[in-house]
Amino acid sequence: MSMSKRTIIVIGSVVVLLLGWWTWHRNGSGAEAQTSGRNSRGAGPGGGSVPVVAAKVEQKDVPIYLNGLGTVQAFNTVTVRARVDGNLTQILFQEGQDVKAGDLLAVVDPNPYKAVLDQAKAQAALDQATLKRQQDLRARNVIAAQDYDTAAANAQKSQAVAEAAQVNVDYTQIKSPIDGRTGIRLVDLGNVVHASDQTGIVIITQLRPISIVFTLPEQNLQDLEKEGGVQGGLAVSAFDRGNTTKLGDGKLTVVDNEIDQTTGTIKLKATFPNDDLRLWPGKFVNARLVLSTKKNAIVVPASVVQRGPQGTYAYVIKSDQTAEMRAIKIAQTENNETVVEDGLKPGEDVVVDGQYKLQPGAHVESTTAAGQTAADSSPARGPRTNKSPKPAKS
């Protein structure tokens, strides 16, 4: 076969393949366009109704919250240390035990200090007897006033030495300074302890009541001042890390006296009774402060609020059962409820679920989920996606 014939065959094959591909692509695009047209007619303004779940816009009093991340702190923490040197002869507490102020925790060998005390008491008694004799002699002018004053000073000094010795004997009994719970023992029985030791014997933390220290943005300080929060007394609730389980209710006790310039936040401290010990020192919690109560607030389920390039919006169901996309301004979202500052009126119907299938002006077929929250109002089904369902094959 010559070179020219082979070239003609190759060119012809390429032409046939190109014609076949063009024909297939044209037919496929047409079918896709027809399918897309059927789908848009079904969900668009001129097609069938789109099923959605609807709810009424409500008006009620709603608490206004400020939320911050906090840490639980013991109301008081004390490291119990020996105040005299000596051998630790007794440990009278159990690790993790609740103790009261004044409870005996440990004993340092008191014998050396009792010996010093006995000697000091004997010297004090001798000096007191001497002073009494000097006092009689001075009354008869037998001795000079200077001798009497020296005897009086010696008696006073020896009495002070005896009292100091008694203090050291008392210090051999190590007692709890506060009500609280003991931690892990830091020293074992039989060790020699010193007043200069920094480790201590045990750490006691007061758990009832207990404190939570949390932070808020500095912008909230003005709102706190407006509501009188800087004097304390506002209600504060503590929630777990997932912000789902309440751990306790307390009261704001103090607002810190300065703003942290590195973070732009201010510290607050709240006190909780903690009767059930659900709050534990060092635990991270979410603090929710009730700033005030907004009267007659416009409220919708949280799932009503949608977000787009132009901001937040909601689908409102008009009286002719068509959907209107309306811009809204929200104030806060708490407990699956959103407070709307502008854009909605009480009694209007809004779409709770099904927005991803809607277009402005589309006809809707709405059902309500009375008595359910926004989280429970959607029908049982798989995870939601942003994609429209595929059209059924014709």
Write the layout of secondary structure elements.
Layout (H helix, E strand, L loop, with lengths): L2 H41 L6 E7 L1 E17 L2 E4 L5 E6 L6 E2 L4 E5 L2 H29 L5 H27 L1 E3 L4 E3 L9 E2 L8 E4 L4 E8 L2 H7 L8 E5 L6 E15 L4 E8 L11 E18 L4 E3 L2 E7 L5 E5 L1 E6 L2 E6 L6 E5 L10 E5 L26
Parallel strand pairs: 1-22
Antiparallel strand pairs: 1-21, 2-11, 2-15, 3-10, 4-6, 4-9, 5-8, 6-7, 8-10, 11-14, 12-13, 12-15, 13-14, 15-20, 16-17, 17-18, 17-21, 19-20
Helix pairs in contact: 2-3
What do you see in this structure?
This protein is of the alpha+beta class and 394 residues long. The protein folds into 3 domains: 48-61 and 296-368, Beta Barrel (conserved putative lor/sdh protein from methanococcus maripaludis s2 fold); 66-75 and 209-293, Elongation Factor Tu (Ef-tu), domain 3, CATH 2.40.30.170; 78-205, RNA polymerase II/Efflux pump adaptor protein, barrel-sandwich hybrid domain (OB fold (Dihydrolipoamide Acetyltransferase, E2P), Beta Barrel). It has 4 helices and 22 strands. The strands form 4 sheets. Strands 1, 16, 17, 18, 21 and 22 form a 6-stranded mixed β-sheet that branches. Strand 17 and strand 18 (323-327) form a beta hairpin. It is elongated.
Provide a quick synopsis of the model.
The chain is α+β, with helices and mostly antiparallel strands and 394 residues long.
CATH class of the largest domain: Mainly Beta
User: What pattern of helices and strands is seen along the backbone?
Assistant: HEEEEEEHHEEEEEHEEEEEEEEEEE
From the N-terminal CA to the C-terminal CA, the straight-line distance is 51 Å
Largest β-sheet summary:
6 strands, mixed
- Which geometry do the CA atoms define? elongated
Number of domains: 3
Q: Which fold name fills CATH's third level, the topology of the largest domain?
A: OB fold (Dihydrolipoamide Acetyltransferase, E2P)
Structural class designation: alpha+beta
What percent of residues are in strands?
A: 35-45%
Catalogue the unreliable spans: 28-42, 371-394
The CATH superfamily name of the largest domain is RNA polymerase II/Efflux pump adaptor protein, barrel-sandwich hybrid domain
**Tally of helical runs:** 4
- CATH second-level architecture of the largest domain: Beta Barrel
User: What proportion of the residues is helical, as a percent range?
Assistant: 25-40%
Mean pLDDT: 86
Total beta-strand segments: 22
For the CA atoms, what is the radius of gyration?
41 Å
